[in-house]
């Protein structure tokens, strides 16, 4: 989405309505777009700054990688982009996650920064995610890159979602 000055603006990541963080949610089902929702949002249905940071991280990775957050593999298998990028990061091959349509025409330092900040924001543990100010400082090269674990941290059982990512059909008939 662009404003009148053609500045990029992001939407609501698929959430159906605004959430008043001070009041309990009246929603009885999880509202949001698969792949953009953090584990704690899926389990608690409570939006917060940290759930927004997670979504920001997924969008940053989507821009850098040119991939959707959830990619269909074979018939019933799905690959989560965050998992795929974190695996490349752990092998020291994070630049390989860059959008292949760019054909290598990008600044590697900037691409690496965007991808690592995306992973940092999409960290499975909400406590380990940065504030938006911290993320922007790193993106502007005013702070060093964060040091992330080489292996994607496991989500504790208290944050495990009540469902698994499977296939289904949206109301528009599109399979996800």
TrEMBL record:
In the N-terminal section; belongs to the leguminous lectin family. It is found in: Cell membrane. One of its GO terms (cellular component) is plasma membrane. InterPro entries: Kinase-like_dom_sf, L-type_Lectin-RKs, Prot_kinase_dom. GO terms for biological process: defense response to oomycetes. It comes from the Eukaryota. It is a single-pass type I membrane protein. PROSITE patterns: PROTEIN_KINASE_DOM. Residues 1-148 form the Protein kinase domain. Keywords: ATP-binding, Cell membrane, Glycoprotein, Membrane, Nucleotide-binding, Receptor, Signal, Transmembrane, Transmembrane helix. One of its GO terms (molecular function) is protein kinase activity. This is Protein kinase domain-containing protein.
């Amino acid at each position: 989405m662009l404003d009148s000055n053609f500045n990029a603006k992001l939407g609501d990541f698929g959430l159906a309505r605004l959430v008043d963080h001070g009041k309990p949610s009246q929603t009885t089902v999880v509202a949001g777009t698969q792949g953009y929702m953090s584990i704690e949002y899926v389990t608690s249905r409570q939006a917060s700054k940290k759930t927004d940071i997670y979504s920001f991280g997924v969008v940053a990775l989507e821009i850098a990688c040119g991939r959707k957050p959830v990619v269909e593999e074979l018939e019933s298998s799905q690959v989560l982009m965050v998992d795929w990028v974190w695996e490349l990061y752990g092998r020291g091959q994070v630049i390989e996650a860059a959008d292949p349509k760019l054909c290598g025409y990008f600044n590697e330092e900037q691409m690496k920064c965007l991808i690592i900040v995306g992973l940092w924001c999409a960290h499975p543990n909400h406590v380990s995610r940065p504030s938006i100010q911290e993320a922007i400082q790193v993106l502007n090269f005013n702070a060093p890159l964060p040091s992330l674990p080489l292996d994607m941290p496991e989500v504790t059982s208290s944050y495990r979602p009540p469902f698994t990512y499977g296939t289904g059909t949206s109301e528009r008939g599109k399979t996800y």
